[in-house]
Design brief:
alpha/beta, Rossmann fold, 14 helices, 8 strands, 41% helix, globular
Length: 292
């Protein structure tokens, strides 16, 4: 931290000065929360967070993208302040929910950018609805290639933090995402702690974690032939300190998608869009805008 930086960070400071709104829509029967910035006459872009996350995962990216895109970050099915129906949140359910959201906000075709679970959903959506996707970004995308040890750590730490959302448990769950733990700030911990304290979040946590075994991952994974059939421009974005899988896993994913681009961000863990927002925004926008 340099001398002219504030000693405290917050979600609000990330969003200050940005013309954004928070709202809810009915998406396939699910009350769905979003953060939104950008004009409706610009191309659509939807950010998708990872397991146990929420729209604020992209609080440092909304402003940079709003100049070019009609930009949404949503709380996925069963997450954040979005509805939590009483069934397992499998990939097909997420796809239906995402399609319902895109329809509900009046967008025909969008670019999708997903981190971890969000990347898995984005890829599976592009397979199921190729006519609705303009470009695709898979950011440390989760699926069957995740390390079993990392998957178990993620499952257990999420379960612990939701069922007993004390400060240290929630902070530890968030720090797991970061290469440099000092990137975490108290306001984000407090925001997630409030989400995890919701009764329906605690009652539905096993629905949310239904994909967190290797067997479930294999059963619901995007198949090699399906990756190979993706024709939309795709960026696979990885990091050098991702706790779920190594860089070569990202390279394999990029190689499976014809014509895809591959980029690695350094000194980041599982949340590069937050840990190094300036670099992420530059790489991300260069790809989405078609810059060389």
């Amino acid at each position: 931290m340099t001398g002219d930086e504030a000693p405290y960070e917050s979600v609000w400071s990330d969003l200050q000065g940005i013309a954004f709104d928070q709202g809810y829509v009915d998406a396939a029967g699910i009350r769905t929360r979003y953060l939104h910035a950008g004009s409706p006459d610009k191309p659509g872009l939807v950010f998708l967070h990872g397991t146990g996350g929420h729209a604020e995962a992209y609080s440092r990216n909304l402003g940079a993208h709003a100049s070019h895109f009609n930009t949404y970050a949503i709380d996925l099915l069963g997450h954040g302040y979005t509805g939590k129906p009483d069934y397992d949140y499998e990939i097909a359910r997420y796809i239906d929910h995402l399609l319902g959201f895109i329809d509900s906000v009046g967008m025909t075709k969008v670019s999708l950018s997903g981190e971890s679970l969000g990347g898995w959903i984005a890829g599976a959506f592009a397979v199921a609805h190729p006519d609705r996707v303009h470009k695709l970004v898979l950011n440390t995308a989760g699926a069957e290639k995740v390390s079993p040890e990392a998957l178990e750590s993620l499952r257990q730490s999420t379960l612990d933090a939701v069922l007993d959302p004390n400060w240290e448990r929630v902070r530890s769950r968030l720090e797991w995402l970061m290469y440099d733990k000092s990137d975490m700030h108290d306001d984000l911990v407090a925001s997630r702690q409030r989400i995890y304290r919701q009764k329906d979040m605690q009652e539905g946590i096993h629905h949310l974690l239904c994909l967190h075994t290797i067997e479930a991952r294999m059963r619901h994974a995007v198949k090699p032939g399906e990756w190979a059939a993706i024709t939309v421009p795709t960026l696979v974005l990885w990091t050098d300190h991702d706790p779920t899988s190594t860089v070569d896993v990202g390279e394999e994913l990029a190689a499976a998608i014809p014509g895809s681009q591959f980029a690695v961000m350094t000194d980041c863990g599982h949340w590069p869009q937050f840990e190094d927002a300036d670099t992420f925004n530059r790489i991300h926008l260069d790809f989405l805008l078609g810059k060389p």
